[in-house]
Amino acid sequence: MSTISSAVAAQTSETTPDSAPFFIRGKVVEGTDQIHRSRDLGVDFATPKIDLDSLIHPRAELPPMLNTPIAEIIDFLYEAGQKLADPNNAHIQGTIDRIAKVSLQPRLAIQYQLQNAIEYLDRASLREMVEQNFPNPAALDEWVPHTDHQGRRSFIRAFAPRLIHVLPGNAPSQGIRSIAQAALVKSVSLFKMASADPFSTVAFLRTMAEVDPNHPVVQSMSAIYWRGGDEAIERVLYRPQYFDKLVAWGGGDAINNVMKYIGPGFQLVSFDPKTSISMVGREAFVDDATMAHVAALNAADVSMGGQEPCVSSRFTFIEATADQADRYCKILAEEIRVDRMDEGTPRPLDADLKEQIDMLRMMDDDYAVCGKTDGRGIAIRSDEPVDFHPIRKTSNVVLVPDLMDAMKYVNVATQTVGVYPFERMASLRDHLSSAGAQRIVRLGEAGPSAIGNPHDAMYPLHRFVHWMANEDGADAG
Fold first, then answer.
1. EC annotation (predicted)?
2. Fewer CB within 10 A of the terminal residue: the chain, N end or C end?
C-alpha cells in the first residue's frame, strides 16, 4: 500500500464511528443506518435502523421463561458468567475499547467493572437474591395455594412481567445486573442502552447466546439504543398494550422524560438520581494515625468508580474544629488521589466546575481547598455544603457541631451514608431513615452492597413481577 493510501486508511479508521449492534430476542442485528452522538463526550457511534415490531412480544404468546424452573435459569446464568469471565471473550474485550471512547470513566476502570461482572452471576448470590425478594420463591415457578382464615382458597403467582429497562451510562456492569434480575423474574425485557455505553449489554447477551441461542433467557431479551426523548419510538413502545413496567435508571432529565408516559396499566419502577454522603464523628481525631485511617476509608467511598455511581460519597460531614478539618482535608485529598483500582488516567474536571473550585480557593477565610483540579482528587472544607455537584473525585467536607446537625442535609435523594465510628450507626439510623436516606454502611464499605438487600428503599424483584391471584371459592363446610 502506498504512503498516501495508508494515510487515507488511517484517517478513515479514526473518523469512522464505532458500530453498536442490537440484540433482538436471540439474534444480533448489525447495521450503520443511524449515527448518534454520545451525551458526555460528543463521540459518534452507529446503530442499525430500529424495527419496532421486532421488539414486541405479543401478549397472546406466553413469556418464554414462564415455565422454566428458577433453578434452571440460575444454572444458565452461572454458565454464561463463566464464559463472560474468559479473558479470551472477544465480545467483552472489544467492548472495553469502544466504551472508553464514549464514557467519562477511564478505560482501566471500565475493564475492571466488566471483568468483575461475573460476581452478579454466582449461583449462591442469585439464589440469595431470589430468597431475599420473595418470602416464597415457589411463586415464581407455580401457582401457590393459600387459604385465608375464613376458608377462601386462592392461588398466587409472581407472574413473568414485560419490562422496558432504561439503563444508566455510568456503570458498565449494570447491564449484566439488569439481565440477571430480568431473568430471575422470568420477564420479557427490552433494554434501552445509554449513549455513554451503547455496547456492553449487547456484548453480555451475545455471550449468553453462544452458550445456548435457543435458551428461554436468550429468547426473552432485546437490547437497542435510541436517543432518550425520541417520541417517534417512545410513544409506540411505552404503552401497556406491550409492556407492564418501565424500570428506569438515570438522571433527573431521564426520569422526568419517562414520567409522561406512565398511566393506568404501565407502571414506573424508578431508580432516581441519588447522592451519597459520609459522616465522621469526633472519634476520628483521637490521634493522627486514626485520622489518617479514617481519611483512607472516606477516600475509598469518594473515589469508587471515579465518583460516577450514585453510591460514591460526595459530601462528608465531620465533628471537628476548623484546624482538625483542614488537616483532615489535606489527608483526604491525598488519599483520593491514590489509584486503588488501577483506573488509569482520569477525565479532567470540566471548565465550569474547575472555575467554581478555583474561586473557592481564593476565599480562604470561608473555605479550604486541598488537592488539584485535575480529576485525580480534591477536598473542599466549608461550613455549609457547596452549591454545586461534587464529581470527578471531589469531596466537600462540611463542619457540623454534631452529626445530628447533618440530618437537615439528608433527604429522599440521599442513597448511601457511610458512618465512622461504626458503633454510632445504631444511634443515627432511625433519624437517617426518617430523613429519607436508604442505606447505612460502615465508612469505607459503600460498595458493593449486601446480596439481595433493598435498593433505593425497595426490593426490586418484588416490584418487577406481575402479582396475580386466582381465587377459587371457599372450602366445603
1. 1.2.1.50
2. C
Query: How far is 324 from 382, CA to CA, in rounded Å?
Result: 13
- Beta bridge pairs of residue 439: 416
Contact partners, residue 318, CB within 8 Å, separation at least 6 = 279, 280, 281, 284, 324, 325, 328, 397, 398, 399, 400
Distant-in-sequence contacts of 83-92, Cβ < 8 A, 24+ apart: 83/207, 83/208, 83/210, 83/211, 84/117, 84/118, 84/121, 84/176, 84/204, 84/207, 85/115, 85/118, 89/207, 91/203, 91/204, 91/206, 91/207, 92/203, 92/207
Strand bridging mode 152-159 / 466-474: antiparallel
Predicted confidence (pLDDT) per residue in 88-142, tens digit:
888 988 898 899 899 888 788 888 888 777 888 999 999 999 999 999 999 999 9
DSSP string covering 266-305, please? Answer: BEEEEE---EEEEEE-GGGGSSHHHHHHHHHHHHHHHHGG
3-state secondary structure of 66: coil
Cβ distance 133 to 459 under 8 Å?
A: yes
Helix (H, G, I), strand (E, B) or coil at 312: coil
Q: Where are the beta strands (DSSP E) in 188-260?
A: 188-192, 221-224, 245-249
One-character DSSP codes across 405-426: GGGGG--TTEEEEEEESGGGHH
Of the candidate ranges 38-52, 193-207, 226-240, 243-257, the one whose mean pLDDT is the lowest: 243-257
Q: At what angle do helices 200-211 and 70-84 cross, to 10 degrees?
A: 110
**3-state DSSP assignment of residue 368:** strand
Strand order in the sheet with 275-280: 368-372, 377-382, 394-399, 313-318, 275-280, 414-420, 439-442
pLDDT digits (tens, 9 = 90+) for 334-376: 999 998 765 556 677 888 999 999 999 988 778 999 998 888 8
Q: Say which CATH class 275-442 falls into.
A: alpha beta
User: Regarding the domain delimited by 17-273, which CATH topology (the fold level of the hierarchy) does it fall under?
Assistant: Aldehyde Dehydrogenase; Chain A, domain 1 (3.40.605)
**What's the length of the chain?**
477
pLDDT tens readout for residues 248-303: 987 777 788 888 899 899 999 998 889 999 999 999 999 999 999 999 999 999 99
- What are 153's strand-pairing partners? 147
Q: The C-alpha cell of 319 is what?
A: 465533628
Range(s) for CATH 3.40.605.10 in the chain?
17-273
Cβ pair 23, 206 in contact under 8 A: yes
